[in-house]
Amino acid sequence: MRNSIAGTCLAAALAALLPSVGTPRTAYDIIRSSDSKVRGNTQIAEMEIIIKGRRFTRTLQMRSWDNRIAKKSFAEITAPAKERGNRFLLISGERLMWHYNPIMGKETKIHPSMMLQEWMGSDFTNDDIVKESSILEDYTHSLAGKKTVDGHECNVIALTPRPKAAVVWGKILYYARVSDDLPVRQEMFDQRGNVKKILTCSEFKKMHDRVIPTVYKMVSVDKLDRDGRENQYTKMIIKKIAFNVRIPDSVFTLRNLKRK
Known about the structure:
By secondary structure, the chain is α+β, with helices and mostly antiparallel strands.
């Protein structure tokens, strides 16, 4: 009798567990994991930005501070000398980005409608730098199959803007590695369904306490050569980064933005 009762209880326990075993992950699960791995709750980073134009190449050095939980970010150009001191502040609740120009000695507001504009003449947008839009909160997510990209098997996630989200893209296709959810590629589409920008993520390395892509290359489709070659692009190379560290609230202030 006791064995019968014990067997029945064991069977019931196993039955309760079985539905959770092998339960397929949702598109949102993958995006949440990917976003958390490359951003953490907070991060402080040093990076090099290479802007390759048709007749010129510019290189910038930048530091950035990002608090994903508080939805605040701050970035500052540290080199070359003629660009040093340009600073950018976003406090998401205000829906405004601020830019301080050291030559003019004043700050200006960048309205949400201007977030799609090129940042510092690069292929990145203002939104890319200060992370105004959230791939978690501002989009719905759906699985769109699997595809091998640059040798990595990827889940393809289609991101569609929520009705009232203040985002710059009409759709994003997000390619995340099946093995660890890290991003490999993003394709950004306008409201008419035309792909406008392509971001590739490469050179996966351990930085601080995790493996992340350390090179982000943004290409504007309308700048491709006639044969499709990427002779114009912007690369963001992460040189140093620390995740989940405390960032003082004073970093994300107008006073810090305007300091001499």
